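Input structure tokens:
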């Protein structure tokens, strides 16, 4: 059994027996998890949130009690009987062109929520990066204070760029999701988007 088939089969087992579905992926691929989440939504679930646990990206979906979700689920079961996951190319987790925008928005939502969940981790990253730059400066003192300061400053600049890139990425995702917020619903704290920064 191919990996894609295994992932879909595991998700379908959860859908059949639970009201809460948890999808996870080591070294998380938001693209794959977004496609699986889209399929789960077709079976009457709704996206609840995403988080990162170490190197594992985890997505949580809950059963949607609304009538339109039940209708989607009935239609999806008919397609499953025909041997394909709803909205995906046969045997893959590649979305068909008509559902690709919805899957792309789910992927953006997953990435945004995973980054939002990293806030406590940012403090640890900042402490680690500062300590690393200071240690580099101390180790290079025997070579000369200029070399020590240059290496430490370079290291600090690289770390600052890395953190800045994460902030820019999160802001870009927030802007994209804000423009499509009506697709995801409002009011759940976990999914609340930040206000635009000035």
């Amino acid at each position: 059994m191919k990996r894609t088939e295994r992932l879909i089969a595991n998700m379908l087992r959860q859908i059949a027996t639970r009201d809460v579905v948890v999808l996870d992926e080591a070294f998380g691929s938001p693209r794959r998890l977004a496609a699986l989440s889209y399929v789960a939504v077709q079976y009457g679930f709704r996206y609840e949130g995403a988080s990162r646990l170490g190197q594992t990206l985890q997505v949580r979906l809950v059963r949607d009690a609304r009538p339109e979700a039940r209708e989607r689920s009935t239609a999806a079961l008919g397609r499953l009987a025909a041997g394909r996951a709803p909205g995906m190319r046969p045997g893959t987790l590649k979305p068909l062109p008509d559902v690709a925008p919805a899957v792309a928005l789910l992927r953006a939502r997953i990435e945004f929520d995973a980054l939002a969940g990293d806030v406590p981790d940012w403090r640890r990253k900042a402490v680690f990066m500062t300590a690393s730059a200071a240690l580099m400066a101390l180790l290079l003192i025997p070579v000369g204070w200029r070399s020590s300061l240059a290496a430490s400053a370079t290291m600090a600049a690289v770390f600052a760029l890395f953190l800045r890139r994460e902030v820019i990425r999160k802001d870009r995702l927030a802007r994209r999701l804000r423009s499509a917020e009506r697709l995801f619903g409002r009011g759940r704290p976990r999914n609340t988007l930040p206000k635009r920064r000035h």
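The first strand starts at residue 20 and ends at 26. Residues 145-179 form the longest helix (35 residues).
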